[in-house]
Amino acid sequence: MSGLQTFWSRNRTLVYTVSGLILGYSIAIGMSYLLFSIGQEKGRGNIQNFKIAQLIKDSKDEILNVIRDSKNSTSNEKSNDGTKQGIIAFYAISTRDLDLEFSQTVVFDQVYTNIGKGYNPKTGKFIAPFDGLYRFGSTGMSQSYHSVFLQMNKNGIEVARSTAAQNYNTADMEAILELKKGDIIEVTRRTNSNKQTERLHGNRLASFTGFLIATM
Question: Is the pTM of the predicted complex or chain greater than 0.70?
Answer without folding.
Answer: no
